[in-house]
Design a protein that fits this description.
alpha+beta; 24 helices; 4-stranded mixed beta sheet; flat; 46% helix; S-adenosyl-L-methionine; 3-stranded antiparallel beta sheet; 11% strand; Serine Threonine Protein Phosphatase 5, Tetratricopeptide repeat
Length: 664
């Protein structure tokens, strides 16, 4: 890959997209109000003053001190105040009543939606004593627990009951509480605990034998219904890495890959195979260094781990985000969310891109300014920012965005309680701001979209669709260079990235990733333009150099490898059986291609059978057959070849199915 001059207009549009996702956000107005100050007599301020400042930290300092822009910058930042959706006890009470009404009508799914909204909007214990005597949250959880019991979900029902108890629900003399606990344990198959809870109910109900008999009948009915509608929740785990031991160079990587190149190398640092790799080998399982959920999924996915929400747990203070569990909530509220909570809606309203949120998250999750500065050295060494090539106007916009985010951090007391309300940063704050500004530049080239597979019908593959739900930054994955014909397929489990090889890669060869433009879906001119303007390099991969056609024009018959050892030549596929004995124009030897043709036919058959296994939803069997077919093809032929490329795409779908996959 070679750096080249970009298409200035398209590059500007690409750069802007990585900074601002909404034109209507107020940041755009903020920028233009500041930019008006360096037009006219100060028209050269950007190039003759700003651009000549040598470091990000000093450029950030400049916008607070230079009289050309500082008054507008500081005047605007002074108005930054918390903007967030607060709790509402009355709204929660209304939703709870609606849930109970729907429950009575046996409309369980609608009742669950109302109950979840009641939980999310309820203030904590004692916050609003005029409604429910301050127990709105406990009663919302109590109601949702009953919905889960009716839906035969004992595990989640029990979690809500336990949480309701922690939120103030009286349980010591509450017979009904232990009746529900007994039902939850019965649904979960924990019969001994169910019996203990039933005995407590019996005691607290005044040894009412009739009530105990009715409870036990209900428990048995629930067990029977659970058996009749048995559904197994599969707990997904990260796959085991190929090879032995831990990779000392790349965290979370297999020992079968290693780093090559250097910062001075035109290709930078990149990943090569340390040993021969076959298709389907796991070469990376890496948790995100930082990841942010797209705002439009705040109501459907956990903001911490990206799991789809079923029984959302709320932040104690805001209604803007939700968590899948108490563990995710507590971890988030102890670190990044306590600084983002009251300013998240303001930041979204600014129109900033999700990459800006990831940059902020890299700071807030560190917890302290000192830790941010320490991590900043590592981040600059790992992720390229290309500051020296960035247009001064684009850099200035990112500096202005940094000033806005830094102001949010000041107001959220990330730096502790300040002695002044003025937005002008201290030296410590400037150092943190410099890390933010560096991240706002490097994320353009290093961030990865996190996706899930959405299954909308009966068949898990025919109705599957990739949906991007967030963005993450990964130190190990950022080391992979791009090719338009990738050697790996990317999937996710939560926010952790998994890379499987998608084709054979010999030891010493580059292990390429794909940044988006794939030769199967985009013609060469479109790919080249996108890569030049979005990632600032010209791709000279094999698919580009040979100008491979898109999927619909791919050949059904590939070129075959010369069978002479170390020759490496590719021979035309013989159109007739009589043409299978040919002379190689490289090694000058007579080559019989009969065995190669038969192996290719066997490869096609394996891939076809693999596709049939996918049609039958036998995922593991399909993976094994596809791996064998792709391996066999690599031994006798060279790409592009339509059936094999279809098999590689099918393999990608199978691995995605084992990651973030949800039915809708």
């Amino acid at each position: 890959m070679t750096s080249i001059d970009n298409d200035p207009l398209f590059t500007s549009l690409c750069n802007e997209k990585t900074l601002q996702s909404q034109k209507e956000g107020f940041f755009n107005e903020f920028y233009h109000s500041v930019a008006e100050n360096f037009t006219g007599k100060s028209a050269r301020w950007l190039t003759e003053v700003y651009q000549k400042v040598p470091t990000d930290q000093e450029r950030l300092r400049l916008i607070y001190e230079d009289p050309v822009v500082c008054y507008e910058v500081q005047g605007t930042l002074e108005h930054v105040e918390p903007v967030f959706r607060a709790k509402d006890a009355k709204f929660s009470w209304q939703r709870r009543e609606q849930a109970l009404k729907l429950l009575g009508e046996n409309k369980l799914q609608q009742a669950l939606i109302m109950a979840c909204q009641a939980v999310m909007r309820a203030p904590g214990q004692g916050v609003d004593r005029f409604i429910d005597k301050g127990l709105t949250l406990a009663l919302a959880l109590w109601t949702r627990a009953e919905v889960f019991i009716r839906m035969l979900d004992g595990k989640r029902g029990l979690q809500d009951l336990q949480l309701a108890s922690k939120c103030g629900l009286p349980v010591k003399q509450n017979a009904d509480y232990y009746a529900r606990v007994a039902k939850c344990y019965a649904l979960s198959g924990e019969n001994s605990r169910a019996e203990v809870a039933a005995k407590l109910f019996h005691q607290l109900s005044g040894h009412n034998d009739y009530a105990l008999t009715r409870l036990k009948e209900d428990m048995e009915d629930l067990r029977v219904l659970k058996q009749e509608t048995l559904s197994v929740e599969v707990e997904r785990t990260l796959p085991k890495l190929a090879g032995e031991g831990e990779n000392s160079e790349i965290a979370g990587a297999s020992t079968k890959i290693k780093l090559a190149g250097s910062k001075e190398d035109p290709r930078g640092r990149y990943v090569i195979a340390a040993a021969d790799l076959g298709p389907g080998e796991v070469i990376l399982t890496e948790p995100a260094y930082a990841a942010c959920l797209h705002p439009k999924y705040f109501g459907t996915h956990c903001t911490a781990c990206f799991s789809r929400l079923i029984a959302p747990v709320a932040c104690p203070d805001c209604c803007g985000v939700a968590f899948c569990s108490i563990a995710c909530r507590d971890k988030a509220c102890a670190t990044y969310h306590r600084f983002e909570c009251r300013y998240l809606d303001l930041m979204i309203g600014s129109g900033m891109s999700i990459l800006c949120h990831v940059a902020l998250r890299m700071v807030t999750q560190a917890g302290t300014p000192q830790k941010v500065i320490q991590e900043g050295h590592m981040l600059r060494d790992t992720f390229c920012a290309h500051t020296e090539h960035r247009d001064p106007e684009d850099h200035f916009k990112r500096t202005l965005m940094t000033a806005f985010l830094l102001r949010c951090l000041q107001k959220a007391e990330f730096f502790g309680r300040r002695t002044t309300e003025a937005p002008e940063p201290t030296e410590l704050e400037l150092q943190v701001g410099a890390v933010l500004l560096s991240a706002l530049q490097s994320l353009q080239f290093n961030a990865h979209e996190v996706y899930e597979t959405r299954i909308t019908g009966e068949h898990r593959f025919d109705t599957a669709k990739v949906q991007y739900i967030g963005v993450g930054i990964y130190r190990g994955a950022s080391m992979f260079n791009h090719e338009c014909y990738p050697g790996v397929t990317r999937s996710f489990l939560g926010t952790s990235m998994i890379l499987h090889t998608s084709r054979p890669i010999p030891a010493g060869a580059v292990v390429p990733e794909n940044y988006g433009p794939h030769f199967l879906r985009q013609p060469k001119p479109v790919r080249q333009r996108n890569l030049r303007s979005r990632y600032w390099f010209k791709c000279d991969c094999r698919a580009c150099n040979e100008d491979w056609p898109k999927m619909d024009k791919l050949p059904d018959k590939p070129r075959l490898r010369c069978t002479t050892a170390d020759c490496g030549n590719a021979l035309s596929y013989p159109s007739k059986p009589s043409q299978r004995n040919v002379k190689c124009n490289k090694c000058k030897k007579q080559i019989n291609l009969e065995a190669s043709v038969k192996m290719l036919e066997a490869s096609d058959q394996l891939c076809t059978t693999g596709a049939e296994m996918m049609a039958d939803e036998c995922v593991d069997e399909a993976i094994e057959l596809l791996k064998k077919g792709i391996t066999l093809f690599g031994q006798v032929a060279v790409p592009p070849h339509k059936p094999t490329l279809v098999a590689e795409e099918s393999l990608r779908s199978c691995f995605a199915d084992k990651g973030n996959a949800n039915r809708y």
